[in-house]
Amino acid sequence: MQNTVKSKKSITGVGLHSGKPVTLSLCPADENTGIVFIRTDIQDKNNAIPALWSAVVDTQLCTVIGNAEGLSVGTVEHLMSALRGMNIDNARLELDGPEVPVMDGSAMPFVELIEAAGVERQNVPRRMIRILKTVTVEQDGKRAVLSPSAGSIFGGEIEFSHPGIGRQSFETELLNGNFRHDIANSRTFGFLHEVEWMRSKGLALGGSLDNAIVLDQKGVMNPDGLRHEDEFIRHKLLDAIGDLYLAGAPIIGAYEGYKAGHAINNAVLRALFADETAYEIVNAYSTGTSSAGCQSALQSASAL
Ligand SMILES: [Zn+2]
Fold first, then answer.
1. DSSP letters of 14-34?
2. Distance of CA 300 from the midpoint of ligand 1 (Å)
3. CA of 214 to the centre of ligand 1 (A)
4. How far, in Å, CA of 221 to CA of 217, rounded?
5. What pLDDT does 196 receive?
6. Do residue 143 and residue 272 come from a single domain?
7. Under DSSP, is residue 91 helix (H, G, I), strand (E, B) or coil?
8. Cα(first)–Cα(last) distance of the chain, in Å?
9. Contact 240/156 with Cβ under 8 angstroms?
10. pTM
């Protein structure tokens, strides 16, 4: 069945790129609403932006979604990841600025916000997107693949020449709290020279060692080090879970990313939805996430 949150809860932080304070309010929403952002600082035009793959307008530094009025919301991926990981189908996300607050650079503050709000079960079946055939996108040595699977599985691999990262791979299934345990607290990361370049362009103004892992030539600069030895690939999967939730519903299938980022994650969704034979919409009646255990409760539904 579908889930929303029980009550409205807010947090305030800075935007990673703007450096400006922004307040995010997580609010309940009716069945079949999906995830919708509301720019409360704009009142003279349509300020709603649905969290959908087709609304993605930029993927260079983070995932940005926008509407026909030209309004946008940036850095949605960590919040979207928390909503997917915590099985929230319907929510209104009110923001008084153009960017989701970065908080600690992970999805954990949003997981805790959802937990503080409480999860409310709704009375209609959950719509899910079941992958029927493999869809692959390759760009510049990067790759993202969606393939059929009984569960909702996210796997990936990265390779960096920096010895502090090197080659890392990880896989998790969104089941039984694995998201909270394996993925949620892994932080975004960057290299000092990139941060300096972005600052010179007026970007990453809110970035600091409090909300990102930063590496210099010697290694990790953060005084407390890493939260996981392989925190980098775990964060890449956190991003992928958020980017793929812009499908508009949870995916039953396996995602595999190689050196993947926001652009290719959006491209694989566009390739999926361009081929009507590659997926089907199913209704799930169980309370759990997509798992082998709820397959018996799945039933084909009409198109999205
Ligand atoms: Zn990220």
1. EBTTT--EEEEEEE---TT--
2. 33
3. 13
4. 10
5. 85
6. yes
7. strand
8. 16
9. yes
10. 0.94
The residues, any chain, with a CB within 8 Å of residue 185's CB and separated by 6 or more, are: 106, 107, 108, 227
Residues 180 and 198 in one domain: yes
Given 88, 121, 154, the domain boundary residue is 121
Residue 78 C-alpha to ligand 1 middle, in angstroms?
Answer: 6
Q: What is the set of active-site residues?
A: 262
The CATH number linked to 145 is 3.30.1700.10
pLDDT in tens, 95-144: 999 999 999 999 999 999 999 999 999 999 999 999 999 999 999 999 99
pLDDT at 297: 56
What mean pLDDT, rounded, does the chain reach? 92
Rounded CA-CA distance 85/181 in Å is 10
Same-domain status, 268 and 152? yes
261 Cα–ligand 1 center, Å: 9
> What residues have their beta carbon closer than 5 A to ion ligand 1?
188, 239
Q: Check whether residue 17 and residue 151 sit in a common domain.
A: no
- What's the confidence (pLDDT) of residue 298? 60
Percent of the chain with pLDDT over 70: 94
Domain boundary at 72, 103, 121, which? 121
Residue 12 to residue 257: CA distance in whole angstroms: 32
Question: How many domains are contained in the chain?
Answer: 2
Q: 101 alpha carbon to ligand 1 midpoint, in Å?
A: 12
